[in-house]
Structures are given as structure tokens and as C-alpha cells.
Design goal:
By secondary structure, the chain is of the alpha/beta class. It contains five helices and nine strands, in the order E-H-E-H-E-E-E-E-H-E-H-E-E-H.
């Protein structure tokens, strides 16, 4: 299969393993990986700049399909010398007296923002990490983002009752490249080569068997009639 495929992905998502599988299965179809911001992901797909995107739900879903792939653990990030440093896990209630930053690209869907409200909202998660590293407040993020922005002076632990983020493969509802999308769906879902649902092969047309010309039926030789034996009188 020829052509090309562009896959956008938001920070923290690591598409490398899927890209390797794509290269093995579709070596003649180049795959381009493009990292985008959370705000850009949906727009890139709708505009056609990307064929699909790995993004976080709920996120931007207008005119897009989304196939959930996995759910991330939410963690709270704080300075390494904080009083919580010895904790293995925390709850939202533990954070009630602390300032929690909520960046504009926050992927978590809070019903009610916990902790003390910050004076402003940082533009990005990276900006919020810098503020926390300066010793001001805390931040709750999916674990992959905490790993992405890991610093030696920060620590993070799971937050047991926080909302969680789901990573999904998103593509246009009116997709112009359904064959390649099906291949990508199969790869990210872990299907094997044989089970990957690609385009349905065209049915093979069976040739009608040639009719044999029938000649006249061979005449069977008539057997001579047997003579009846004369009956003996009583």
C-alpha cells in the first residue's frame, strides 16, 4: 500500500512503539509523527494536516471519532522536600489547604477544583511545573506528563480519587483515508497482522465451468430375449 500517513500526538503520549509496528507492516507507506499542543490536536485533524491524532479525552471532539486506548493514573506533583514526600499515595482531601495550579491545557475534567484556588492559571503544564519547582503550590496531572516534565527537585505520587485522563486515537468522522485509518486502529489496539481489519479484499470471480458438449447417448446393445421353459404337465 502506498501513500503516506501523518499522526499527531499530544505531550506525554509516546507513539514510538506503534510507529515501529507501522514500519514493519506498511514499509511502503511513510508515517510522519508530529507533536502538537493539546489545543492544536483536534484542529490539526479537522484541517487535514494530520490524518489522525493521539489525544486525551474529553478534549476537543467536534466532528471527530475517538477510540479510547488506555486510562492514565493521575498524580500530584510537589517539591521533593515537601511534607508529603514520605507519602506513597494521597487523596483530594489531603490537598484541601494547598494551592493547586490548573493550567489552561489541563487534561483533567474536574467537577469541582480541589485545594485553594491559584491567583492565575498558567498557560501550559510546563509553566505550572516551573512554578511548583519554585516552591509555590502543587499540580495534578496524568502520570505521563509528570514523567515528561520530571525534575530532580520534584516528586509525584498517585492521587487516589482524582479524575483520570484517557488517551484516544481520534480521526475525522468523514475520513478520506479509511484504509490507512483501519491499519492504524489495528496497530494501536494490538491486533496481529492476520486480525487487523484492513480494506476488504475484492471477491475473486469464479469462472463458470465450461459446459461439455454432449454427443448422442451411446446405444446399449440389446441382450437376446431368454426363451421361456415349457411347463411340465401334472
Amino acid at each position: 500500500m502506498t501513500g503516506s500517513f501523518t499522526l499527531a500526538y499530544v505531550p506525554g503520549v509516546t507513539p514510538g512503539k506503534w510507529a515501529r509496528v507501522w514500519e514493519e507492516r506498511l514499509p511502503e507507506t511513510p508515517l510522519t509523527l508530529v507533536q502538537v499542543t493539546v489545543a492544536e490536536a483536534g484542529a490539526k485533524v479537522r484541517s487535514g494536516e494530520a490524518d489522525a491524532a493521539l489525544l486525551r479525552l474529553p478534549g476537543d471532539r467536534e466532528d471527530l471519532h475517538a477510540i479510547p486506548l488506555y486510562t492514565e493514573t493521575s498524580v500530584v506533583v510537589f517539591p521533593k522536600d515537601h511534607e508529603f514526600a514520605a507519602a506513597d499515595e494521597l487523596s483530594v482531601e489531603d490537598l484541601a489547604e494547598h494551592v493547586l495550579w490548573q493550567p489552561l491545557d489541563d487534561p483533567l475534567d474536574w467537577d469541582e477544583q480541589p485545594g485553594q484556588p491559584p491567583v492565575e492559571r498558567p498557560e501550559t503544564t510546563a509553566d505550572a511545573i516551573q512554578i511548583v519547582a519554585a516552591g509555590v503550590g502543587m499540580l495534578v496531572v496524568p502520570q505521563s506528563l509528570a514523567r515528561l516534565h520530571h525534575r530532580k527537585d520534584l516528586k509525584y505520587v498517585p492521587l487516589s480519587d482524582a479524575p483520570q485522563s484517557r488517551v484516544a486515537l481520534s480521526f475525522p468522522i468523514r475520513d478520506e483515508n479509511p484504509e490507512l485509518i483501519e491499519h492504524m486502529i489495528g496497530i494501536v489496539r494490538g491486533r496481529t497482522v492476520n486480525s487487523t481489519r484492513g480494506p476488504a479484499p475484492e471477491p475473486v470471480k469464479k469462472q463458470a465451468p465450461q459446459q461439455q458438449r454432449r454427443g448422442p447417448a451411446p446405444q446399449q446393445k440389446r441382450q437376446p430375449a431368454k426363451r421361456a421353459k415349457p411347463r411340465r404337465g401334472r
